[in-house]
Amino acid sequence: MQVILNTNLEGLKLIGRGKVRDIYDLGEYLLIVTTDRISAFDVIMPNGIPMKGYVLTQLSKFWFEQTKDIVENHLITTDIDQMPEEVRKHKDILKDRTMMVKKAKPYPIECVVRGYISGSGWKDYKATGTICGIKLREGMVESEKFDEPIFTPATKEELGKHDENISFERMCEIVGKEIAEKLKELTIKVYKRASEIAEKKGIIIADTKMEFGNYNGKIILIDEVLTPDSSRFWFKKLYQPGKPQESMDKQFLRNYLETLDWNKTAPGPDLPPHIIEQTSKRYLEIMEILTK
Fold first, then answer.
1. Which end of the chain is more exposed for a tag (fewer CB within 10 A), N or C?
2. What global pTM score does this model have?
3. Domain topology for 106-249
4. Helix, strand or coil for residue 46?
């Protein structure tokens, strides 16, 4: 499968380009093309990761199916042959990396749920004893499991800006208390369902972020869900609280970038072949474990 960094598809109207996805307007629907771009620290790297767009699309499709009884989602089909003719003529580029979806109005919130204390949550806890305004018990160690998953929202910022962790109270101010409470409830429910499925396959989902939108007056799950771009995956058999865990996700790339003399602003550094290869391998492996 060829590495796709950008798409400019003749006969289709490009309306948005995110860190990873190119979005086209199909009139009643949207076409979301998942490229092989990878970002870290909100900077898009110059190199693509082979098979990444395929992995993210297949995993999202899997999890949308597993959670559709909890919350409706935006996915209509990932089958190119069921899409309009103007899409099918680009089959060589789009096959296995493309979703045709409902047009929803996104809520401007990253809905983050944490089952374990890690990453930015661990840094915040060490500094303040809290995460997103939530006071946590003293004496927690890195990678420790919470008694119950916690909801830690963030703002959804434009490309090139860092998403900012916010309190639930601030989220209520942005989207309204009723919507905020419903988004929190749905996020935790989806996370718990996915965690049960993953643990049976030997995988811990330490944390994940989701996005929701309004579609015909209903809240639906949109974008991607429970992929290595949006989640932290650990091997259950290797899990040891008190230290960082081996990750089957984008954390592998972040760890490499932390060793460089780079100020975490664009442009991103060129990635060496072994980092590209290992990142691709990890993405494929977690997909195969979770969807088998």
1. C
2. 0.95
3. D-amino Acid Aminotransferase; Chain A, domain 1 (3.30.470)
4. coil
